[in-house]
Amino acid sequence: MKSFNLEKFFASKSAAFVLPFIATVLLFAIWELAVILLKIPPFNLPAPTNIFQSMVTFAPQILANSLRTLWTTMLGFALAVLVGVILGFMIGYSRVAYLTMYPLLVAFNTIPKAAIVPLLAIWFGANAIPATITAFLLAFFPIAVNVALGLDTVEPEMKDVLRSLGATQVETFQKVGWPHTLPYIFASLKIAASFAFIGTVISESVASNAGLGYLIVQATADFNVPLAFAALIVLAIMGVILYGFFVFLEKKVIYWAR
Amino acid sequence: MVQPIVDPTSPDSRSLDTAPLLEFDRVGLEYPFEGSMRRIIEEVTLSIRPSEFVSFVGPSGCGKTSILRMVSGLSPAPIGQIRYRGQKINKPLKNVGIAFQNPVLLPWRNTLNNVMLPLEIVQPYKRTFNQQKEQYIRMAQDLLSTVRLQDFQKQYPWQLSGGMRQRASLCRALIHQPEILLLDEPFGALDAFTREEMWTMLQALWMRVKCVGILITHDLREAVFLSDKVYVMSPRPSSIIYTETIDLPRPRTLEMELSDEFNHYFSNIRRHIHHN
Predict the structure, then answer these.
(1) Are B31 and B236 in contact (CB under 8 A)?
(2) Architecture of domain B50-74+91-271
(3) How high is the pLDDT of residue A102?
(4) What residues of chain B lie within 8 A of the CB of A171, using their CB?
């Protein structure tokens, strides 16, 4: 007799937490097993238990460097949201701004950011500033593009309805442009948050005095591979938490979007 | 002051006024096409009295939609002119209501708030929106019950069927008591059953507001059912090739569709439709 209804569980809310958890545990189990069975040396691929052990041993270092990476990323990300939204509205609303700035933005975005970090380090030194700027540089572009896209996709009929009511530019923005763009902003925030983390870590691993990127480079230089992996896992956890936060915020703010 | 919603049974000052509200004076339209100008609308001259409901029918591409855009002032007539109360229309008119085939309701507003949108923008309602909100809500509810949406005020657009969305869109087009209602194939995307139901509801709404109605449609029965006058347009470059005055009593009912009179009007118009 089956008392547990699988299909009902898959449709339930808790499945969204339980299933990824099971997948993670399973991944670690397979990983552990593979390391043991194939006798992989720890400086090539440490087993998960080895990594967690190292996480405990180096807890103070990991915590301090995580906090550094976290606030650097958040600062760069906050700047990216501000500048990205403003730029997006400019290129979305003004054809002149679009024509003049869009090619520049695209050209700038194609430059690999890792190539800029050494320059930033010369200008600002090996500290948190290059990391913040790199996080910002990676994150603002998707936000700006999505905001402009959001404004651009307001139905022409809707614009006509507002114009025929005699709505001013400001009213059109308030009543249609801004709310219509919100789902696009949220979609971009989720991408931009992970981009900001990437930016910070790139910069920290090239030119910095602290942060998880710095920790990873130092650890691998010492052949302390388990510590490098521990830092990677912390990085992944922070990224997932930030992503989850925006998903949560999105559901609250744009509950009407389907 | 909010204008009271007009009682359809009492004589209305607007309908007694016989001076034309809109005059089309040799209106034409051309479009650049492969290096030269291509004439879309040859010449249209006609006038529309207050509270008259007219339809434009004709083959696709004959510039029907452009006529609406020219009347609304969203794209003023490039050749000839359209006059509103004797004034040439050269910028968007403010007291019009518009509904398209796409109902374009705002997804973040429920039905009631979607219908109330014009009151937040158009004067004199905008000025008193906060003070008289209760009254405005009642106005919106009143219109919504005319189209039997009174139980769907709190629903969001995605929770409504296509026909319901279109009914809400019609209420939005009329809540600010516009002088001109412009309808661009509003029921084109609906199935035949829903469409006929919409005709009676549109008629009920329109008879309350008694504004000028201008309907663009492909559906000749729809044109006969709703209009006082049907203008038939020729293929491009188009002009009005036939005008039929529909003298059926109002409110019209779906049973009338089966009458000889109705079919007489229908076949008269049908005979003048050319296919290109």
Answers:
(1) no
(2) 3-Layer(aba) Sandwich (3.40)
(3) 86
(4) 121
